[in-house]
Specification:
750 residues, alpha+beta, Rossmann fold, Severin, 8-stranded mixed beta sheet, globular
C-alpha cells in the first residue's frame, strides 16, 4: 500500500513493464499474448457484477491488433480448428480431454479434434497435440481458405488527394510529399497488381492519366463544373488508377513535375468534398486507401464548412459543442466503409480547419488523422521533419485490406462499447476497410452473470484481413485472466495505465455527447470513486492518510494530468482543432503512446553522467536518466531537461547552466551564445554529447511516429510549450497534484 499524502514521488525513476497477474503461473503468463498487443484494465476479473461495481474500476480490453511484432507464428496449409459453438479459435488455454477431443476455454463446449492436428509442422511428426503453435502462443496468424473470403482478394489500391490551392503551395508541402513518395515507391506494400492514382484540387478537380499510352508522359484533365454528379467527372477511369510496376516511369515523371505545375497557383478555394466523392467512385469496385493532404478548410460545396475569422480557432469561452458541424463527411465515410475504402487525413493548416468535422471521413472508414499545426517548410522546420518521417513510415508500413475484427468473451460477459476508427457492425464486430500497425482500439466489457464456476476467463480477438500480397489472413490474440471474489486481489492487480486509457476514451465520448466540463467532472469522480472503494475495504486507513494499492497509486496523478491536457483542459485557450485532434488520439492511440501524451516523461540530462540507468545496447552503453515528476520544483536554472511528449521532444536549457555543459553539448561558449530556439543538436566527439545523443536516438526510435525536436533557452518566447506540461503544479483554473489529493480525501470522508 502507498500513502499518497505522504509519498512525495509516485513516478518510478525508470519505465516499468505492463503488469501481469501474479495469480497466473509463469507458464500461463508466457502463453498469454503480449500486453503491448492486448491488455485488460483488470488483471483479476471480479466474480460478479456487484463486486465489479463495488470496486468502482472500469472493465475493458485495449487491443493493438496489427502491431509490428518481432516474431509471429504463421500457420499455413492446415485446417483451422475452431469451437463449434462460440467459433473461437483453438488456443493455449483450451483443455485436451484426449487426442480426439478438446474443451473450449471461452464457452466450455467439448469439440472433436481433427486427426491432422496431431501433426507437428516443426518436427514433421505425429503425436502430442500440445506441441502445435496454436496452443503454445498467445498470438498466431493463419493463412485463410476461400471460406473466409467474400470475394477474391483485390489489388492494393492507393489514391492520393492533394490540395494544390495557393495556401497549400505556400506551405511547401508538395515538394516534400513528392520527394518522399518517390523514394518510397519501392517500399509501397503490394504485389505486381498494385495500383496508384492522384487527384489534385483547388476550386476545380484535376485528373491525371498516367497510363503508358502516352509514351512516358502524363495528361492533365480538369473538371471545372462541380455541380455535376461524381460519376460525370471521370473522363477515363482506366487511366486514372494505373498499375505501379507497368507505369513506373510515368509516375516518377509526374511526381518530379507536379510541384512545378502549381508553383504559381493563385486559386485560394478548396473543393475537398467533390474530390472525396470522385475518389469514392474511382475505388468503388475494388476498395482501397485514400490519402488526403489538406491545408485549409474546404469552402466549396459539397462539404463546405464555416470559416472562423480572426480567432485561429480559439474562443474566449470554452466551447459548448466540439462535435462535427456537418454530417457530410460522416455520411461519406459510412459509404466508404460499405465499399471497403478507408480515408487517411494529413492536415497541414495554419488557420482553423474544423478538424472535428473533417476527421469523420477517417473515423468511420477505419482511417487515421495526422495533424501538423502551422506547417511551413521554412518557418517551422521541426514540423516538416515530423511530417516527412510520418509520411515515410505511412507509405511503407504494413497494411491490411477488407478487415473485420471480433472480440470474443465468455457467455457471462458482454462487449458493449467499441472505441477507435471503424464501423461497428454488431456489438462485438468492427468493420475495418484498412488496418494499419499503429491503430489501437478499446472495448468496454460488462459482467452480466456470475462467474462463480470460472477459475479464469479467456478473451480472444480475431482480425481477418487481406494482406498487401493478396493473401487472406487471420491474426488471433488470446488473453486469459483469473477470476476472484476477493476485492483486495482485484484492486491490487489493476492495470492503472489501461484504466486511464479506457477512461480517456469514455471521457472523449462524454465531451462530444455532453460537454467537456462533464468529462472533467467524470474524471474527478473516477479518481474519488476508485480511492473510496480502496478505503472501504482497507480497515488500516487512518485520518489524514490516503492509502491505495501500489497498482493504483498513479490514478489521481493521471486523472489530474488528463483534466489539464489539451483535449480536456478548461477554457477556450486550446484551439478547437488542437482539442479535436487530441480527443481523437485518446480514442485511437496505443496505450503506451497515449500515456506519454497525458503524462510526459521529464528527464534531467545535466546529471546523465552521474544518475542514470545503464543498458547495454550492442557494443554501446545507453545511459537513461531518471524520470522526475512534472513540477517546477524539479526544474533548476542550473540544469538542462528533456521533456518527451510522444510527438514532440523539448530540450529546455536553464539560464544558469554551466559553460562546460554548453561547450560539450552545443559547441558554444556560454548560455548567452545559444539561440533562443533551435531544432537540431550537434553531434560532438565527447562523452557527454554522445550520451545525450544516444538517449535522444533511443527515444525517437522507440515509437513508430515522427517526432519534432525543439531546443529552447529558459528565456525563449516558446517557453510555455515546455512549462504547460508541468501538470503537478497549480494553474489558473485547476488544482495542483497535492491539492487534488486533499480534495479527493475530503470527498471520500464526507
Amino acid at each position: 500500500m502507498v500513502d499518497l499524502l505522504k509519498e512525495k514521488s509516485v513516478v518510478t525513476p525508470y519505465a516499468e513493464e505492463p503488469p501481469v497477474s501474479p495469480l497466473l503461473n509463469e507458464e500461463n503468463q508466457q502463453m498469454n499474448c503480449s500486453p503491448e498487443v492486448m491488455r485488460c484494465s483488470l488483471n483479476v476479473i471480479p466474480q460478479t457484477k456487484d463486486l465489479l461495481n463495488k470496486s468502482r474500476l472500469p472493465l475493458g480490453i485495449l487491443i493493438h491488433p496489427f502491431k509490428d511484432l518481432e516474431s509471429l507464428s504463421v500457420i499455413q496449409g492446415t485446417k483451422i480448428v475452431r469451437c463449434d459453438s462460440c467459433k473461437s479459435y483453438i488456443n493455449p488455454f483450451i483443455t485436451f480431454l484426449d487426442n480426439t477431443r478438446w474443451r473450449c476455454s471461452i464457452c466450455f463446449r467439448v469439440n472433436d479434434l481433427p486427426q491432422e492436428f496431431l501433426f507437428d509442422p516443426i518436427t514433421k511428426t505425429y503425436g502430442d497435440p500440445s506441441r502445435r503453435p496454436e496452443v503454445r502462443f498467445g498470438t498466431v496468424e493463419y493463412t485463410a481458405t476461400a471460406d473466409y473470403m467474400a470475394r477474391p482478394p483485390q489489388p492494393a489500391m492507393y489514391l492520393f488527394l492533394l490540395d494544390v490551392s495557393h495556401n497549400a503551395i505556400q506551405t511547401g508541402y508538395l515538394q516534400s510529399f513528392c520527394d518522399i513518395l518517390l523514394e518510397s515507391l519501392n517500399g509501397l506494400p503490394g504485389d505486381a497488381r498494385t495500383k496508384i492514382g492522384f487527384l489534385t484540387y483547388d476550386s476545380r478537380i484535376h485528373f491525371y492519366d498516367l497510363s503508358d499510352r502516352h509514351n512516358g508522359t502524363f495528361r492533365i484533365m480538369i473538371a471545372p463544373d462541380l455541380d455535376n454528379k461524381p460519376e460525370d467527372f471521370l473522363p477515363m477511369p482506366d487511366g486514372l488508377m494505373v498499375t505501379l510496376c507497368e507505369c513506373r516511369s510515368t509516375i516518377e515523371t509526374f511526381l518530379n513535375e507536379l510541384p512545378k505545375i502549381y508553383q504559381d497557383n493563385h486559386e485560394t478555394d478548396s473543393a475537398l468534398g467533390s474530390a472525396l466523392q470522385i475518389a469514392g467512385k474511382l475505388l468503388d469496385q475494388t476498395g482501397g486507401r485514400i490519402t488526403v493532404i489538406q491545408t485549409r478548410i474546404p469552402n466549396i460545396n459539397p462539404g463546405a464548412l464555416q470559416e472562423l475569422v480572426g480567432s485561429g480557432g480559439q474562443t474566449a469561452k470554452e466551447p459548448t459543442n466540439i462535435g462535427p458541424t456537418s454530417d457530410f463527411y460522416k455520411k461519406l465515410s459510412l459509404d466508404y466503409a460499405s465499399l471497403q475504402i478507408a480515408c487517411d487525413l494529413f492536415l497541414l493548416n495554419s488557420h482553423h480547419i474544423d478538424l472535428a468535422t473533417l476527421s469523420c471521413i477517417s473515423k468511420y472508414s477505419g482511417g487515421e488523422v495526422k495533424y501538423y499545426a502551422g506547417f511551413h517548410s521554412v518557418q517551422r522546420p521541426h514540423e516538416v521533419e515530423r511530417f516527412e518521417n510520418d509520411l515515410r513510415r505511412y507509405l511503407q508500413r504494413k497494411i491490411g485490406f477488407e478487415a473485420v475484427m471480433r472480440l470474443r468473451s465468455p457467455p457471462a460477459m458482454a462487449i458493449h462499447t467499441f472505441h477507435g476508427s471503424g464501423f461497428v457492425r454488431s456489438v462485438d464486430l468492427l468493420v475495418l476497410p484498412n488496418i494499419n500497425p499503429d491503430a489501437a482500439f478499446g472495448m468496454q466489457v460488462a459482467v452480466e452473470d456470475s462467474l462463480a464456476h470460472y477459475t479464469s476467463v479467456t478473451f480472444q480477438a480475431a482480425l481477418l484481413y487481406t494482406s498487401s500480397k493478396s493473401e487472406r489472413r487471420i491474426r488471433v490474440h488470446t488473453l486469459s485472466l483469473p477470476v476472484s471474489a476477493n476485492l483486495t486481489e482485484i484492486c491490487s492487480n489493476a492495470d492503472q495505465e489501461a484504466i486511464v486509457s479506457l477512461v480517456a476514451k469514455m471521457a472523449t465520448d462524454r465531451s462530444t455527447t455532453s460537454s467537456i466540463q462533464e468529462a472533467r467532472d467524470a474524471m474527478t469522480n473516477v479518481a474519488c470513486d476508485i480511492l473510496k472503494a480502496c478505503l472501504s475495504h482497507n480497515l488500516s486507513n487512518r485520518a489524514f492518510s490516503l492509502l491505495v494499492p501500489y497498482s493504483l497509486r498513479l490514478i489521481p496523478l493521471y486523472m489530474l494530468s488528463m483534466i489539464k491536457s489539451t483535449a480536456f483542459r478548461a477554457g477556450g485557450a486550446p484551439r478547437l482543432d488542437d482539442r479535436a485532434y487530441y480527443l481523437d488520439l485518446c480514442k485511437t492511440l496505443p496505450t503506451q503512446y497515449l500515456m506519454q501524451i497525458l503524462y510526459p516523461d521529464l528527464y534531467p540530462i545535466h546529471t546523465i553522467e552521474d544518475k542514470s540507468q545503464i543498458i547495454q545496447d550492442g557494443e554501446d552503453e545507453l545511459h537513461i536518466p531518471q524520470r522526475v515528476h512534472l513540477s517546477y520544483q524539479n526544474i533548476d536554472s542550473h540544469g538542462a531537461y528533456i521533456l518527451d511528449t510522444s510527438e514532440y521532444i523539448y530540450v529546455y536549457i536553464g539560464k544558469a547552466i554551466s559553460d562546460h555543459f554548453v561547450q560539450n553539448v552545443f559547441n558554444l561558449g556560454t548560455f548567452s551564445a545559444l539561440p533562443l530556439d533551435s531544432y537540431s543538436l550537434p553531434e560532438l566527439e565527447n562523452p557527454l554529447s554522445m550520451k545525450i545523443h544516444n538517449f535522444l536516438s533511443y527515444l525517437i526510435q522507440s515509437r513508430p511516429h515522427g517526432i519534432a525536436l525543439h531546443i529552447m533557452r529558459e528565456d525563449s518566447s516558446h517557453r510555455h510549450l515546455f512549462t504547460r506540461h508541468l501538470v503537478d503544479d497549480k494553474s489558473e483554473s485547476t488544482m495542483s497534484y497535492v491539492e487534488f489529493l486533499r480534495y479527493i480525501r475530503e470527498q471520500i470522508v464526507k
